[in-house]
Amino acid sequence: MITDEALMLAVADGDMEAFDTLVRRHQQAAWSTAFRFLRNEDDARDIVQSAFIKLLEAAPRYRPTAALKTFLTCIVTRLCLDWVEKKRPVAMAVLPETADPSPSQERAMLDDGLAAAVRGALSALGASQRMALILRHYEELSYAQIGEAMDLSPKAVERLLARGRLALREAMEKAGGGGFLPLTRL
């Protein structure tokens, strides 16, 4: 299999098939990051489309000093943060009502309710804290990778995550969700 970096160098030489391969490899991960942050499918799709356009435009200047996935995550992250600076509201998830749930449906509703509470608490955080938490707990990026994506030092990322986790925990406690943070169910 051809590496992402080799494909990107081919894109720099005008190979659009290589670009198509990169899009197919990374569009789901890029969309997932954008959706977790924005909570809106259409906006996430727009961000991802813009990110791949920026990736294509950057191809002639690309140097394989970092993994392409990290480079793309950086683009998606910055587009999401720019989106928030434009003061577009973050959509809140609303749980559907169901009648007479079975025990398994009841457990699923509790899990969904907890996930919705986490999403609500996350959406109340500042954009930088929210993005750092998403990149760390959902995309499983290292502090260094998050720092690269957000243009911060790893130590600044560590502090940002600590403040974000504390604010998230406090928001969950106020909402009656306790201090438990099911970050895997966003």
Description:
The protein has 186 residues and is mainly alpha-helical. It has two domains: 4-85, RNA polymerase sigma factor, region 2, helix turn helix motif (Rna Polymerase Sigma Factor, Chain: A); 103-185, Winged helix-like DNA-binding domain superfamily/Winged helix DNA-binding domain (Arc Repressor Mutant, subunit A). 70% of the residues lie in helices and 0% in strands. The chain has eight helices and no strands. It has helices at residues 4-12, 16-38, 41-58, 68-85, 103-124, 127-137, 143-150, 154-174. Helix 1 (4-12) packs across helix 2 (16-38) and helix 7 crosses helix 8 (154-174). The longest helix has 23 residues, at 16-38. It is elongated. The two termini are 32 Å apart. Mean pLDDT is 82; it is low at 89-103.
Structure characteristics:
about 190 residues, mainly alpha, Rna Polymerase Sigma Factor, Chain: A, Arc Repressor Mutant, subunit A, about 0% strand
Task: Summarize the structure in short.
Helices cover 70% and strands 0% of the residues. The chain is mainly alpha-helical and 186 residues long.
Going by CATH, the homologous superfamily of the largest domain would be Winged helix-like DNA-binding domain superfamily/Winged helix DNA-binding domain
CATH class of the largest domain, named Mainly Alpha
How many structural domains are formed by the residues?
A: 2
Weakly predicted, low-confidence segments: 89-103
Q: Give the termini separation.
A: 32 Å
